[in-house]
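In response to reviewer comment 3 from the previous cycle, which asked for concrete evidence that the modeling workflow produces usable outputs, we include below a single protein chain processed end to end. The sequence was submitted unchanged, and the resulting structure tokens are shown without manual editing.
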Amino acid sequence: MALDAYLGRRGSLLEETPEHAELVQIAHPLLTADEIASLRKIDDPPHRAVTLSALFDPRGGAAALERALDDLVAAAIHAVDQRNTILILSDRGTDGEHAPIPMLLAVGAVHHGLIRANRRTDADVVAETAEAWDVHQIACLIGYGASAVHPYLALESIVRLTEGLGIENLDAVRALKNYKKAVSDGLLKIMSKMGISTLTS
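The workflow returned the following structure tokens.
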């Protein structure tokens, strides 16, 4: 079984060219702060990443959420047309005037929007969200179309609990490693129950 994945533009399944290998391999679908920062720094055309905001004005109610979803899908299609191959959907920046679009809803909308526009194989989706904490939430995001997840609030909370508050008798590096291992074990268990052996399946 394998949890590694590839990010980027997929080539035709009916032929084999050097461009088929122009992908970014990640060893695990849970991305740390350093790993997602590295993705953002890539500026080579085959691997260019762009961050799309998954926020909306909650004062507009359900209509504002629907408009924000439509705008997010349109922005994703435009980004792919501009040869961006890694789409990072981010709910950072939440405040009194900006609420996060539920990340499952955002990932699913972009996934299906790209399918309808015949662009789905041209880019991969990465979810940068404060909503994902446990294995189930991360697995759902992957199932809805995300190739990787950066649960920044969970990771930052672990660091704070270990270093700032001293609640756990271990350092932040070990605690983050334990969290990643727990997520790995949980994803493998879910995959085994579904009868699939690789995360990319």
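The longest strand covers residues 49-53. We consider this sufficient to address the reviewer's concern, and the full set will be provided in the supplementary archive.
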